[in-house]
Specification:
Elements lengths: L11 H8 L1 H9 L7 H35 L5 H12 L11 H8 L3 H13 L3 E4 L6 E4 L6
Antiparallel strand pairs: 1-2
Helix pairs in contact: 1-3, 5-6
Length: about 150
């Protein structure tokens, strides 16, 4: 599991602290006296966030695996390349979603082919589409159930 999430399991706490450095330094700043109550409160909250981050990552990996299993043998090489690129963005995915222009850039294909490929991926349940025409955006269809 640690290899799949590209982080050793024990670094979840370090990752959480790193992502919220200002809070970490603010909590340290408050421990100038012998009362460490605020520090312990901060640390306990951070440990809980780290556990939640780990659960979210595991859920994401399971959803990714289920989607790949369901689509095995159904996608062309361009679609597989784009899907892999979307998964590399991690839990939060592409900011603002994948556009047809993004698809063209990643896959190196024409506008017409990108449109066909994206339509096919939506029909196969790989992607969810929002918006229309130039405002259309695509998101991984991996569910967000907890």
């Amino acid at each position: 599991m640690a290899q799949e999430i590209a982080q050793p399991s024990l670094t979840a706490l370090a990752y959480t602290i790193e992502s919220e450095k200002k809070s970490y330094y603010a909590a340290l700043e408050q421990v100038r006296e012998l009362d460490v109550t605020k520090w312990l409160s901060y640390f306990a909250e951070t440990v809980l966030k780290a556990q939640q981050n780990t659960l979210d990552r595991i859920r994401f990996i399971l959803q990714k695996t289920k989607l790949y299993d369901r689509l095995r043998g159904q996608l062309n090489s361009r679609q597989e390349k784009v899907l892999a690129r979307m998964f590399r963005e991690g839990i939060h995915g592409f900011k603002g979603g994948l556009s047809a222009a993004n698809y063209m850039k990643i896959s190196g294909t024409s506008s017409a082919t990108a449109t066909r490929d994206l339509k096919d991926m939506v029909e196969k349940g790989a992607l969810l589409k929002t918006g229309e025409l130039k405002h259309a955006r695509y998101y991984l269809n991996i569910g967000n159930e907890k």
